[in-house]
């Protein structure tokens, strides 16, 4: 029989340090020691980040993220060419293994093509070789790698697309009996933090405080303080008009704002938050509508599902009346 004390490796594949807090509770990585019961450091991060606690690990998400060295995570940045394409930048301790973990967190385990992985590995190996020759021990913090195809673009949208595919009710929450806006907020907030390693929306003030109040505000149908406007103000993406949406401009995972009026002559407006999944086409390949990911609750019951709407141009002579949706906006994540 193997006793627990005889097992040297456990949480995150690291070596157990049983002298600090008993058997199997504290583990040692290259850049930290941490408590497996909390997935938190017991010693402060030597490279602190203003956006998170110095005791945080796994960017707050141990379910989707592994961190073999105890370092930070890759993140996207503009490539500086003016094309809008992004590259991935290494943080301290990053290597090919942390890159694979990061990409699989976005696309899903096993969904990153082997040809792409080989292309990225060649770049990381080259950068680490240069680092070794310069006496830096293979450290590549601040180094950039290029995408094999289109650039590391729309990673937030792709992260959301993956979560919807894996679990449609992911990050469901209720606020005052309403599920669509707070749930969409939490989904986008988690996606942004994973991709960029920064709690950009949380830095706005915290759940149920400034960021969410700004997120759900409805001052203007053109974005205002709603999630599309907040996200654009933070530099997370670009707003699209209704016409651009109809002409195929949305990317998977884009943020949608849909608004309805109960009837003519009323000022009351109902707002709906959702995440775009894909367009729908007719037999000739023309866009006729779209499918999106929403969160609807009835009687306090979680009913997370996808919905489809058609682009209708002939409802009572009103231009672009989408099954009752009058004000329609989308935001493509950068």
List the helices and strands and how they pair.
Blueprint: E1 15-16, H1 18-21, E2 26-28, E3 33-35, E4 40-41, E5 75-78, E6 86-89, H2 96-107, H3 114-133, E7 144-145, H4 155-166, H5 180-196, H6 210-216, H7 227-233, E8 237-240, H8 242-246, E9 255-260, E10 270-281, E11 287-298, E12 301-310, E13 325-333
Antiparallel strand pairs: 1-2, 2-3, 3-4, 5-6, 6-7, 8-13, 9-10, 9-13, 10-11, 11-12
Helix pairs in contact: 4-5, 6-7
Kindly describe this structure.
The protein is an alpha+beta fold and 334 residues long. Helix content is 25%, strand content 22%. The protein has helices at 18-21, 96-107, 114-133, 155-166, 180-196, 210-216, 227-233, 242-246; strands spanning 15-16, 26-28, 33-35, 40-41, 75-78, 86-89, 144-145, 237-240, 255-260, 270-281, 287-298, 301-310, 325-333. The strands form three sheets. Strands 8-13-9-10-11-12 form a six-stranded antiparallel β-sheet. A four-stranded antiparallel β-sheet has the order 1-2-3-4. Strands 5-6-7 form a three-stranded antiparallel β-sheet. A hairpin with a 5-residue loop joins strand 10 and strand 11 (287-298). Helix 4 (155-166) crosses helix 5 (180-196).
């Amino acid at each position: 029989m193997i006793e627990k004390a005889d097992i040297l490796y456990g949480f995150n594949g690291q070596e157990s340090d049983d002298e600090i807090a008993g058997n199997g509770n504290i583990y040692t990585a290259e850049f930290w020691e941490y408590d497996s019961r909390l997935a938190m450091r017991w010693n402060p991060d030597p490279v602190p980040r203003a956006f998170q606690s110095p005791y945080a690990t796994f960017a707050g998400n141990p379910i989707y993220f592994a961190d073999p060295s105890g370092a930070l995570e890759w993140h996207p940045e503009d490539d500086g060419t003016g094309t809008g394409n992004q590259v991935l930048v290494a943080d301290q301790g990053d290597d090919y293994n942390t890159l694979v973990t990061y990409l699989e967190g976005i696309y899903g385990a096993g969904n990153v093509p082997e040809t792409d992985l080989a292309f990225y590995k060649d770049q990381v190996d080259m950068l680490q070789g240069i680092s070794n020759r310069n006496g830096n021990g293979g450290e590549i913090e601040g180094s950039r790698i290029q995408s094999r195809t289109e650039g590391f673009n729309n990673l937030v949208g792709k992260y959301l697309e993956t979560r919807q595919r894996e679990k449609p009710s992911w990050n469901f929450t209720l606020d005052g009996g309403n599920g669509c806006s707070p749930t969409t907020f939490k989904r986008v907030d988690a996606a942004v933090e994973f991709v960029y390693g920064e709690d950009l929306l949380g830095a706005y003030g915290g759940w149920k405080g400034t960021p969410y109040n700004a997120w759900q505000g409805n001052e203007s149908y053109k974005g205002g303080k709603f999630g599309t406007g907040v996200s654009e103000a933070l530099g997370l993406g670009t707003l699209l008009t209704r016409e651009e949406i109809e002409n195929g401009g949305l990317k998977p995972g884009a943020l949608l704002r849909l608004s309805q009026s109960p009837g003519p002559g009323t000022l009351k407006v109902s707002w709906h938050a959702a995440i775009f999944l894909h367009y729908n086409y007719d037999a000739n390949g023309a866009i006729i509508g779209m499918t999106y990911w929403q969160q609807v609750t009835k009687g306090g019951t979680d009913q997370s599902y996808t919905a489809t709407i058609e682009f209708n141009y002939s409802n009572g002579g009103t231009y672009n009346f989408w099954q009752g949706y009058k004000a329609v906006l989308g935001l493509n994540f950068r």
